[in-house]
Design a protein that fits this description.
Blueprint (H helix, E strand, L loop, with lengths): L3 H7 L4 H16 L1 H12 L4 H29 L1 H18 L5 H13 L4 H12 L5 H29 L4 H20 L23 H30 L6 H21 L6 H12 L9 H11 L2 H15 L5 H30 L1 H23 L8 H7 L17
Helix pairs in contact: 1-8, 2-7, 2-8, 2-9, 3-4, 3-8, 4-5, 4-6, 4-15, 5-6, 5-9, 7-8, 7-15, 8-11, 8-14, 10-12, 10-14, 10-15, 10-16, 11-13, 11-14, 12-13, 12-14, 12-16, 15-16
């Protein structure tokens, strides 16, 4: 495996600064869940169920808000979007320590809706700045950066929540949101390819929101559903084995497996559609719980873990190929909502299986459910969208596009 593809991507003007900003700006975004949970349980003295309601409220708000902020990106550009969302979100989290529990639930919804679209901005800018043939490598870099952010963000949140006075964790979160928004505003990376000005009139959704995109959204939700279910099952497995202290090690190893998979996938010459990668990841999740001893878990996570970052990368590449540049912000937001829905459904599903049948069956059920959803999406995934945007057509000249993939190794990019 050569690193030349990564060097070529990093040589594109402004890409290095964008990726570095993406690392810093995403840390607060990855800390929301644990910060809210610890604030409610430790600071407010509420139950875990009540903490879960607050995080669920934030998740619902985020799922609703991502397409809206994405459309604002398409219509009004990066700086207007970042300024508006950053001011609202930082204000919401800044006053949250003073709110009662019911008001905090409402604030969590508002904070989710107006969350600065850091993830969408980075991916849109990469699609705009990097040549089409290098997008997979660029998105793979981005997926690896996300993994690093998820390693750092929750750990920082725990450190702040356990060492600062009541409410200061949310103050820190508000400051982080403000700093992240200001950083992306000052960077002002392009979100449309050169020569594609921000349109005054939105292209009709009928030109791009077709069966292929719906299938991609279903596959994206299946990916995070499987991952979310497996993550909770990992925690429960180690807790039941009396080695809860190994949970952090297991999660870090899992992230490292994903990083390695993303590194290999991004440097490769062939693009594999997201539906193939997500289906394979779900299939490889099924046998994780077969081992009787808990150390087996650390190794059993390897096969499916290697496909995590590649699956996320492929989903973004597929999206960029079937959605016009002028509507890609809204579509990226919709894709983010699909990821969020999968996360929201995965953990409760795993909890039900664990309570009823145990952790071994939870891995199997999560993988089987994810695989069934992917299989159900195949007919729509194979259909070509009604229109293809120019950069997709350019990319399609030497290869088969994922607008109408055939699930055969000889026919994938």
């Amino acid at each position: 495996m050569g690193l030349a593809p990564y060097r070529r991507v990093l040589a594109v003007p402004r890409v290095r600064s964008l990726l570095l900003a993406g690392i810093l700006a995403r840390v607060p975004a990855t800390a929301f869940g644990i910060t809210l949970t610890l604030h409610v349980t430790n600071g407010m003295g509420r139950s875990w169920a009540q903490a879960g309601l607050v995080t669920a409220a934030y998740t619902i708000g985020s799922a609703v808000g991502q397409p809206l902020t994405g459309r604002l990106l398409d219509r009004r550009g990066l700086r207007t979007t970042m300024a508006a969302t950053t001011v609202v979100a930082a204000g919401v989290w800044g006053v949250s320590p003073h709110l009662s529990y019911p008001a905090l639930v409402v604030a969590a919804v508002v904070g989710g809706v107006f969350g600065p679209p850091i993830f969408s901005v980075v991916r849109l800018s990469l699609a705009a700045m990097v040549p089409v043939e290098q997008r997979r490598t660029a998105f793979a870099l981005d997926a690896m950066i996300v993994e690093l952010s998820y390693m750092v963000g929750p750990a920082v949140a725990v450190l702040l929540a356990t060492n600062l006075r009541y409410g200061y964790g949310l103050y820190a979160l508000a400051g982080g949101v403000a700093a992240s928004g200001a950083l992306m505003w000052s960077l002002n990376a392009p979100t449309h390819p050169e020569g594609h000005a921000t349109p005054e009139v939105a292209p009709s959704r009928r030109t791009w929101f077709g069966r292929s995109l719906v299938a991609l959204l279903i596959v994206a939700a299946a990916a995070t559903f499987t991952l979310s279910s497996a993550e909770l099952t990992v925690v429960a497995t180690l807790r039941n084995a009396g080695v809860q202290q190994w949970t952090g090690v297991a999660i870090v190893l899992w992230c490292l497996y994903s990083l390695l998979g993303g590194l290999v996938f991004g440097a490769g010459r062939r693009h594999i559609p997201a539906i193939v990668l997500v289906g394979s990841m779900a299939l490889l999740t099924i046998p994780i719980g077969l081992g009787s001893a808990w150390p087996w878990l650390l190794l059993a996570l390897l096969p499916s873990g290697l496909l995590c970052a590649p699956a996320m990368t492929a989903a973004n590449v597929d999206l960029a190929r079937i959605v016009p540049a002028a509507s890609r912000g809204e579509a990226t937001g919709v894709l983010g909502s699909a990821f969020t829905v999968g996360v929201s459904l995965g953990a409760p599903f795993a909890g039900l299986i664990i309570d009823g049948w145990g952790t071994s069956w939870s891995f199997a059920a999560a993988g089987a459910a994810g695989l069934l959803v992917v299989l159900a999406a195949i007919p729509a995934y194979r259909r070509r969208p009604r229109t293809l945007v120019p950069d997709v057509l350019l990319d399609a000249q030497p290869r088969l596009t994922t607008a109408g993939p055939v699930l055969s190794a000889s026919n994938v990019d």
